[in-house]
Amino acid sequence: MNPNTKVRLSGANAKKLIEHALRELPNEACGLLAGTEENGIRDIKEVYLLRNTDASPEHFSLDPMEQLAAIRDMREKGLNPLGNWHSHPETPSRPSEEDIRLAYDPAATYMILSLESETVPNLNAFRIRNGEAEWEILELYD
Amino acid sequence: MQITVTGKRKELPDGTTVEQLLSLEQVDMPEYVTVTVNNDFIQTADRAAKELHDGDVVEFLYFMGGGC
Predict the structure, then answer these.
(1) N or C: which end of chain A has fewer CB within 10 A?
(2) Per-domain residue ranges for chain A?
(3) How many other β-carbons are positioned within 10 Å of the β-carbon of residue A45?
(4) The pTM is what?
(5) Overall fold of domain B2-62
């Protein structure tokens, strides 16, 4: 675990992300995270819901056009791109081998929502560098 | 010339190319980055020839994907 990295996410944004992921079942859902960063604390201010171009229960890819549109929106709002999120419909909230292999941005937060439990969604955040995943401290707030 | 790179204003020599900018910015794994200039997607093969101009807005988009 990298003790210097903490990620804050509001309950409203967590709900937005979870509701979208449930709507997209059985496929994986995905999107981007934007916010501010200060003293090693990442504050997610905006969760973007993007199309999974793979339309698959086992894979996801972000649409580059939607990615660019989201980045432009972040710039207009004075926010920074901080990472991405995706759902695992039937597997745990941890980076899979494919997630790690395709994690090209070492500065990004990778947030993974597991819907493995039908009653308790499980959300975690990671940093993936040099083929290694490190937990980030995820704090949910009202 | 002044350009905006990932939201930040930068002063760069005239004639700087996209490929040189990727190097100057020390972008990790540039082969997996899509570059846009003024919202136009730049083909990887065109990076070395594509010169930037004053006022240009550049974004670096990492491929983002994975699987469970």
Answers:
(1) C
(2) 6-116
(3) 19
(4) 0.91
(5) Ubiquitin-like (UB roll) (3.10.20)
Q: Residue A68: which of B7, B59, B65 has the nearest Cβ?
A: B59
DSSP string covering A92-126, please?
-SS--HHHHHT---TT-EEEEEE--SSS--EEEEE
Residues of B with CB under 8 A from a CB of A: 7, 28-29, 32-34, 36, 39, 41, 59, 61-68
Report the CATH superfamily, name and number, of domain A6-116.
Answer: Cytidine Deaminase, domain 2 (3.40.140.10)
Write down the ipTM of this complex. Answer: 0.85
Beta carbons within 8 Å of A10's beta carbon, 6+ residues apart = A44, A140, A141, A142
Q: Inter-chain contact A89–B68, Cβ cutoff 8 Å?
A: yes
Which of B36, B59, B64 lies nearest to residue A62, judging by beta carbons? B64
Q: What is the pLDDT of residues A63-116, one digit of tens each?
A: 999 999 999 999 999 999 999 999 999 999 999 999 999 999 999 999 999 999
Closest-CA residue of chain B to A108:
B62
